């Protein structure tokens, strides 16, 4: 009985702290698809910073979000391609942002599709997977943009690359 009285408060505090951290600070997530190959492999585990209000999102960041065309509530991880106000276009196997061709050493292969120029609206973002030709991303959704309130967090690191 003494053991329970000593350890239960610590265990309860630990569980509450863990739930708070997972909900608001950082979370580990598993990647179930090959849409980010070669950067992220199937079943890789990522640590995601969920404190977006303290984070600056930049072109090329990997971000976890809820996509517009998934009624099941799945979370996706993709590369941030377009920030609010950017123009994005895919032609001749390459990405063009704000009229300039973008060097993307992280993609698996050149894109085998065309995507007409769009302007990312205020409060929205445009995402593509690194394995562009198989990725279900902005170029295929009925609306190519993800609202800011649908962002979950920015990928800090891939746990699998640490070992």
Give a quick rundown of the structure.
The chain has 163 residues and is an alpha+beta fold.
Q: How many separate helices?
A: 1
Shape annotation: elongated
Placed side by side, the strands forming the largest sheet appear as 1-2-11-3-4-9-10
Low-confidence stretches: none
- The number of distinct β-strands equals 11
The biggest sheet, with number of strands, parallel, antiparallel or mixed sense and barrel status, is:
7 strands, antiparallel
Secondary-structure element order, N to C: HEEEEEEEEEEE
Can you give the mean pLDDT?
86
Residue share in helix: 10-25%
Radius of gyration: 19 Å
Beta-strand content bin: 25-35%
Please report the distance between the alpha carbons of the first and last residues: 42 Å
Secondary structure category? alpha+beta
SSE blueprint:
Elements: H1 2-25, E1 26-30, E2 45-49, E3 62-65, E4 76-82, E5 87-91, E6 94-97, E7 100-101, E8 115-119, E9 124-128, E10 146-147, E11 151-158
Antiparallel strand pairs: 1-2, 2-11, 3-4, 3-11, 4-9, 5-6, 5-8, 6-7, 9-10
